[in-house]
Amino acid sequence: MKIALVQMNPVIADLQSNFERMKHHFETCALEDVSLVIFSECVLTGYPPQDLLSRHDFIDSIHHYINKIKLMTKSFPDSAICFGTPFFEFGTLFNAACVIHNGDLIFKQDKINLPNYDIFDEKRYFSSGTKQDIFCFKGYRIGITICEDAWKKDYHLYNHNPIDFFCDKNIDLILNLSASPFEVSKDVIRFDLFANHAKTLDVPVVVVNQVGANDHLIFDGNSFVVSPFGDVLCQLSSFSEDVSSLSLDKSPSLDGMYHALPLTASIHDALVLGIRDYVAKTGFKNVVIGLSGGIDSAVTCALAVKALGSENVKGFSLPSQFSSEGSLIDAKSLADNLNIEYSVISIEAIYNQCLLDLAPIFHDLEPNVTEENIQARSRGILLMAIANKFNALVLATGNKSELAMGYCTLYGDMCGALSVLGDVSKTRVYELARLINQDSIIIPENSLLKPPSAELRPNQKDSDSLPAYDQLDPIINFYIEDGLDASSIIEQGYDQEMVMSVIKTIRINEYKRSQAPITLKITSQAFGNGRRFPIAMNLSY
Fold it and tell me: Rounded to two decimals, what is the model's pTM?
């Protein structure tokens, strides 16, 4: 039997466009004598549709397009389509996989294990499937799982292991339809998991994963077919749409190895896709970026140019009296290297006017962080004004280390439509910069070499307020991503006073992060709707 894997980038709720693209791929594959064309989880609606699933008109439209898919298949009676979609029946909404052949729904498998952690909240919308079955097609006995159903490491969360169901069913093939978001190194974990399933059940396993970005989530694709021996029979692209077909009864021409991108390259490509899809899917073309001459804004700008093209990126330096000449030179060099439109607008007059207007209220109070924040907010005002005028989006440039420690200004450097580096530690930002520069100098060397500084007061450096990043970032990772407590982190060899101070600072800055722009997610625990902590709290344990 010949099958095809279609790795598609759906737009959430754009049922017409998603259907038309599914139709194109199905018909193309059918004309190439493909028997079964396989799409990803919720491909008809895009994943995750969230509270759209609470709207009756949306659910009605889904079933309208399922009927259109049925009609489509009548023209190709030798081919069937398998795709994921919300499915409403008997007063209940399921996350389902449908198999349609010659106008008929010949099989439907409802998702059994609904994830309800981190960014997932499927139990808010769907009911769990209550039964499993297999279907026969072209002489093959086929079972279907949907994403989480096959993630064995999480079975402690559930009462049922859908993989075990197939152990004594004499099946020939397992399909897994997934919308599995990108995380660092997750693609390798995903492959190893399904390779183990294939070897355990002694059958080929087909995994079709969504690709593309929807808001903060990035889907890497990397769909594949793995043999009963754990060998790769087929592997689709990372971070781009792809289609591949193969005959299950023929020997593959691949080397049998799973090919993963290097870690930093995968982060780079994920962020590029995240920017491109967020901008395009929200109906915009252009972005605006404040260029400080530092490493964070430089990396953000380089990623944006890669995603959108230099013609759609505008850079602005917004110096104050505390900005160094070197920073302006670095920002200009970056803009020249990237061939983007670049302007300099001083905030000195705005800043001085603010101080003058506030003088009667502040009286003789000593300057402090207030005056620093006025500078950051002055820049935010100008960037947002430019974005408004030219129908563009502002990209925030802060990194995860800064967000964790609150080393950022509300309504200042935090303003923007999208936080590109908000889940990227400072040390990883440098790794990205070196990757960007591997073939030619894009980011000025001085931006990589000079001590990081917000330049909001004379001779300011990040190290005045923060521990060294090579010490800070591991502590943040242990606490945020790994969920370790202070004692466990200290046992890793980190200074007790530093650990306690970092954790305290993270806790007291929840209020800032709750008002941050959405953040592209690349780790197991990003700041955003997958991490929900109260703001008004007093931890006493």
Answer: 0.95
